[in-house]
Design brief:
Elements: H1 6-12, H2 21-38, H3 46-56, H4 69-81, H5 85-109, H6 114-125, H7 128-135, H8 139-160, H9 164-176, H10 184-197, H11 206-228, H12 232-243, H13 245-277, H14 287-301, H15 309-327, H16 331-352, H17 367-370, H18 375-387, H19 391-394, E1 397-401, H20 404-413, E2 420-422, E3 439-443, H21 447-453, E4 454-462, E5 477-484, H22 488-491
Parallel strand pairs: 1-2, 1-3
Antiparallel strand pairs: 3-5, 4-5
């Protein structure tokens, strides 16, 4: 078993530092209450509508675009708490609270005093990163929780020299594979960091390999699904890289600042520097090159900045220790940091949560809020177009949706509509429509695609969210088509596409 000298563990904290449980629990509870208080504003996020739709079709071991856990969790929550926005977001709020607690524990493990732990809890609890993924139930919500738990296990394994923490890390990693595959990133980056910065003796630890084996065993059914279905996640990654990759690379570094805010960015950068320079943190120095490897791989693959958000939580935990020591007993420094933290918290809350009116000019700055506006009105407009059809045509009609959000909104709000079909991601597998359907009410479907399959198409209206928010659905046409040119079996492949 890898051992760490007792004096090193004392310098870095480890088990010698008592976690500030009351502080962590208090801040976490406040975060959960805040998130639940605003959870019903605006409406479902586009991804939540999709997960709700997937969950209604029962358990699956995987999907074209993601693992199975989040849709299953969304479905289970709606069955227990009711089919509402608030119900879906209860697990998300709890995950955000858990991230605050785990981040505080990392700070304690690194030797942070009660003041450092308080700074970590308040900083994480008011950050855009934690609040945004705690506000909505998406794959990143569980992913962030898994990353933070994984980092805590790794830090404890390295500082305490106890093999059991590698086993816990393996269990967390295996379970996290059912939520989002990006958790593989730290599993790749951390060994590279250990090889570069040490302690390399960890590679002689049986616990490390036992943890890796446990991760494979726990995640095996999910991995088997990928292997037996042609690795659809790789196809999805290629599609995302082609469409979103160039822009993600451009905005990557500025977005790292946005995730925690300018003030907290200074803190996590200080944590990164301390990891590299402080001899007392030599056992966990590998986190610094691991972060660099994670950033490099994410930029190369065209991934989003939040893909390395878990690393930022660990670095901020380290930075809280550095900031605490920088403040010392100097009142001016304490006042400056407290003022900066308060100003950052206000700005981050305004950016991350739906506390402003829907027509506020600040709403477009947050893509989460932008994609949570106007879904009931979209369904109403499609329903109006369907109701305007003659009765005999309504009996032969189906609805075509251009994307997964529209499909989910029509399922949730489109009461009385016929079956809805879409070629987007997993939904393409649920088609094609029956051959008896020769009338189509389409929303958001590209006109050349409709013209290729029907003899006549007419725009009967356009989507208007009613608050003037220029989101992806605003102004999209609602089109009615007649006279199908070919069988659905031949037309349907053209409707298939992959995107985020």
């Amino acid at each position: 078993m890898l051992t760490v000298p007792e004096e090193v563990r004392a310098d870095t904290g480890g088990p010698a530092v008592r976690p500030a449980w009351r502080t962590a629990a208090g801040v976490a509870s406040g975060v959960v209450v805040l998130l639940l208080a605003v959870s019903g504003r605006y409406g479902y996020n586009v991804d939540e509508l999709y997960f709700r739709l997937l969950g209604e079709h029962g358990w699956a071991w995987g999907y074209t675009d993601q693992p199975p856990l989040v849709p299953a969790l969304v479905h289970a929550t709606t069955q227990v708490l009711g089919d509402s926005v608030w119900a879906i977001r209860v697990p998300a709020a709890l995950c955000a609270g858990a991230v605050v607690v785990l981040g505080t524990l990392i700070t304690a493990e690194l030797g942070g005093t009660r003041r450092a732990q308080t700074l970590a809890a308040l900083g994480l609890g008011s950050s855009f990163l934690v609040l945004s993924v705690g506000h909505i139930m998406v794959t990143t919500t569980l992913d962030m929780l898994a990353w933070t738990a994984l980092l805590l296990c790794v830090v404890r394994a390295l500082l305490r020299g106890e093999d059991k923490w590698w086993l816990w890390a393996g269990a967390v990693l295996g379970l996290a594979l059912y939520a989002k595959y990006i958790v593989v990133l730290p599993a790749v980056a951390l060994p590279v960091g250990l090889a570069l910065a040490g302690p390399r003796t960890v590679f002689r630890s049986r616990g490390l390999y036992a943890g890796a084996a446990l991760a494979l065993v726990v995640g095996a059914p999910n991995l088997v699904y990928q292997a037996t279905h042609g690795f659809p996640q790789l196809q999805m990654a290629d599609a995302l890289g082609a469409t979103d990759g160039p822009m993600n690379r451009i905005i990557f570094v500025p977005s790292l600042v946005i995730l925690l805010g300018p003030v907290l960015t200074v803190v996590w950068v200080a944590g990164l520097v301390k990891l590299v320079r402080d001899p007392a943190w030599r056992p966990v120095r590998a986190l610094a090159p691991a972060f660099a490897v994670g950033v490099a791989l994410t930029i190369y693959g065209g991934g989003r900045p939040d893909y390395v958000g878990g690393f930022l939580i660990g670095l901020f935990a380290a930075g809280a220790v550095a900031a605490d020591r920088w403040m010392g007993r100097r009142r001016l420094r304490r006042a400056l940091l407290c003022a900066g933290l308060a100003a950052s918290a206000v700005l981050q809350v305004l950016m991350a949560l739906p506390v402003l009116p829907q027509n506020s000019p600040f709403v477009p700055l947050n893509n989460i809020s932008l994609e949570s506006v106007g879904w009931p009105r979209l369904a109403e407009r499609v329903r109006a177009a369907y109701d305007a059809l003659p009765r005999e045509e309504r009996a032969r009609a189906v609805v075509l949706a251009g994307n997964l959000g529209e499909s989910g909104a029509l399922d949730r709000y489109g009461h009385g509509l016929p079956a809805v079909y879409s070629g987007h991601n997993e939904l393409h597998k649920w088609g094609p429509p029956p051959e008896s359907a020769d009338v189509v009410v389409a929303v958001g479907v590209e006109r050349p695609l409709l013209d290729a399959g029907f003899r006549s198409c007419r725009v009967v209206g356009r989507i208007d969210n009613g608050v003037g928010v220029a989101n992806a659905e605003q102004g999209k046409p609602v089109t009615v088509c007649h006279g199908r040119k070919d069988s659905w079996a031949r037309l349907w492949p053209a409707y298939h596409y992959l995107s985020g």
